[in-house]
């Protein structure tokens, strides 16, 4: 397979968006010690409109001044690249006998691979001008809203989707092209996620986005949002932005990692909406509930998912935080449960909510330490003291054996530090009062992991809480 060799490029001085060119030469990269370099890559697949690979297609990428030709499989790969930051690129593809093809404003992110699918149509006297594809802004940047469906939706008779198994295909209205494409459903999700979530975000945020993206499309293959139209969704922000020409290694990995899971209410798929929101821990950001008129508990904020991922939360946590009464299950099952997670290992230097919850448990056991989420020397000393008093190896590390002695069963009516610890893990107000709200959150967690939904936090529920 032919590979593209790129000669070392000099730094481009520009007033706006141009950045230092990418280089393949590691020696040249090391010659600029003050400029950070992060591995990234580009992969192009060039083919005819009916899918036949096009060899020797000429590719150029601006403003990076890169150029090359596709191999016999129609593929061109640029890997082991280095970039100081993200950059907008325009990609032009030309092949003899075919109409030129241009992709504009695709973002190349550091430490990720931009994957481009370039279908070339036959050239003719009437079509000798390039076919231009513009990458649209993310909803997280534009703030555009999904439009609501009919008040009383009905099942779309003839669909292959069920509430336990997603569809094999989805009918997508290509609004600007004036046609409807029948698209493989997983391919659809992979080409929506990078158009809705920013690929450089934390992997847990991308996974959190993959579920509602899948669920939204899945829901509208069961029910008719556009009755009698012949399509299920549009490719715009009215539904979900779909671009079949662009995907990323990071977003594809997020879709693959969550593909076997679904989100249900009362064992049924529901319309999981999302909007830009704000970078904070709130479910009630005005941009969604006030501007769009949506009901809190029925939507997720994209920037909020980034905030939670950046602060150590998992995609499973975000599903039940944002969507009321939602259960994460496995595809093919009526309800479904997640596998029981392992206890974390906490030691000096660890940070986050797991540490904070453990500190609340230590405070409940009589140790006067701050519950600040920072496992420092004071917490280590308290752990060693607790371990010595309970016949454990006093190594200052909280693992399964220490957790078994440290946790305490709590239930509705309790008011103590242990309750605060559980509330921290649940992501609700940590006031130490175990009331109906805390009980409901505990039961929701228990449902995720197939535990008895009694609202009592015993050993298994503590384990599920810490393992989220």
Topology, element by element:
Elements: H1 26-30, E1 38-48, E2 58-62, E3 66-69, E4 75-83, E5 87-94, E6 101-108, E7 113-120, E8 131-134, H2 139-142, E9 169-174, E10 179-184, H3 185-196, H4 203-222, E11 233-234, E12 246-248, H5 249-258, E13 261-265, E14 268-269, E15 273-275, H6 286-289, E16 299-301, H7 302-310, H8 315-322, E17 327-330, H9 353-364, H10 377-389, H11 400-406, H12 417-426, H13 436-448, H14 459-466
Parallel strand pairs: 1-7, 6-8, 9-11, 15-16
Antiparallel strand pairs: 1-4, 2-3, 2-5, 5-6, 7-12, 9-10, 13-14, 13-17
Helix pairs in contact: 3-4, 4-5, 4-7, 4-8, 9-12
Question: Can you tell me about this structure?
Answer:
The protein has 468 residues and is an alpha/beta fold. Helix content is 29%, strand content 19%. The protein has 14 helices and 17 strands. The strands form five sheets. It has a five-stranded mixed sheet with strand order 3-2-5-6-8, with no helix packed on it. A hairpin with a 3-residue loop joins β2 and β3 (66-69). α9 (353-364) packs antiparallel against α12 (417-426). 41% of the residues are buried. The model is unreliable at 1-38 (pLDDT under 50).
């Amino acid at each position: 397979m032919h590979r593209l060799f790129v000669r070392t490029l000099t730094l481009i001085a520009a007033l706006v968006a141009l950045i230092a060119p990418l280089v393949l030469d590691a020696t040249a990269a090391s010659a600029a010690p003050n400029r950070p370099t992060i591995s990234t890559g580009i992969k192009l697949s060039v083919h005819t409109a009916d899918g036949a690979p096009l060899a020797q297609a000429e590719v150029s990428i601006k403003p990076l001044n890169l150029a090359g030709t596709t191999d016999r499989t129609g593929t061109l790969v640029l890997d082991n690249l280095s970039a100081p930051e993200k950059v907008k690129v325009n990609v032009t593809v030309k092949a003899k006998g075919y109409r030129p093809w241009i992709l504009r404003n695709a973002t190349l992110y550091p430490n990720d691979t931009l994957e481009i699918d370039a279908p070339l149509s036959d050239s003719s006297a009437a079509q000798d001008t390039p076919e231009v594809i513009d990458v649209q802004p993310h909803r997280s940047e534009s703030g555009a809203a999904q439009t609501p469906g009919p008040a009383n939706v009905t099942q779309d008779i003839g669909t292959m989707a069920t509430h336990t198994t997603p569809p094999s295909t989805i009918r997508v209205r290509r609004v600007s092209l004036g046609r409807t494409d029948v698209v493989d459903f997983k391919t659809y999700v992979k080409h929506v996620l990078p158009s809705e979530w920013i690929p450089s975000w934390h992997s847990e945020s991308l996974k959190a986005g993959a579920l509602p993206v899948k669920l939204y499309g899945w829901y509208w293959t069961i029910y008719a949002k556009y009755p009698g139209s012949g399509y299920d969704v549009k490719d715009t922000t009215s539904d979900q932005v779909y671009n079949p020409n662009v995907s990323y290694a990071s977003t594809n990995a997020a879709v693959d990692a969550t593909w076997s899971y679904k989100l249900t209410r009362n064992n049924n798929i529901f319309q999981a909406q999302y909007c830009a929101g704000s970078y904070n821990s709130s479910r009630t950001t005005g941009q969604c509930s006030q501007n769009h008129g949506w009901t809190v508990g029925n939507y997720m904020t994209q920037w909020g998912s980034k905030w939670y991922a950046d602060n150590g939360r998992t995609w499973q946590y975000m599903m039940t935080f944002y969507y009321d009464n939602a259960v994460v299950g496995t595809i093919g099952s009526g309800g479904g449960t997640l596998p029981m997670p392992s206890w974390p290992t906490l030691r000096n230097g660890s940070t986050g909510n797991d540490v904070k919850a453990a500190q609340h448990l230590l405070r409940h056991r009589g140790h006067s330490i701050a519950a600040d989420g920072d496992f420092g020397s004071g917490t280590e000393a308290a752990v060693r003291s607790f371990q010595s008093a309970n016949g454990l190896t006093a190594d200052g590390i909280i693992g399964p054996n220490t957790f078994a002695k440290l946790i305490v069963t709590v239930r509705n009516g309790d008011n103590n530090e242990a309750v605060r610890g559980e509330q921290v893990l649940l992501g609700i107000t940590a006031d130490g009062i175990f009331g109906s709200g805390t009980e409901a959150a505990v039961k929701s967690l228990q449902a995720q992991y197939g535990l008895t939904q009694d609202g009592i936090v015993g050993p298994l529920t503590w384990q599920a809480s810490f393992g989220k």
